[in-house]
Design brief:
Blueprint (H helix, E strand, L loop, with lengths): L1 E4 H6 L1 H9 L4 E5 L2 E6 L42
Parallel strand pairs: 1-2
Antiparallel strand pairs: 2-3
């Protein structure tokens, strides 16, 4: 089991997430005492990294009084 202080974890978060996802026990300490234990989420990724199961979307709310067409209005019209 590897232990890291909050400051160390902040600096090395991506590395610690990778290590925990691969099965290593990672404990983050606060004031020298264990605070949290990193472990893969239940039913989580199979090692596919960030892209595994991540879907992102962008939505911009219409200006007051404007209509919003779900079929076409995903990004603001740059020609306006």
């Amino acid at each position: 089991m590897a232990e890291f202080s909050v400051d160390e974890a902040r600096e090395r978060l991506v590395e610690l997430l990778d290590r925990a996802e691969s099965g290593e026990e990672i404990v983050i300490t606060r004031f020298g005492a264990p605070s949290v234990w990193l472990q893969p989420a239940r039913g989580g990724s199979t090692g596919g990294g960030f892209a595994a199961g991540v879907i992102a979307a962008s939505w911009v709310a219409p200006a007051a009084g404007d209509a919003f067409d779900v079929g076409t209005d995903y990004w603001p019209d740059s020609s306006a």
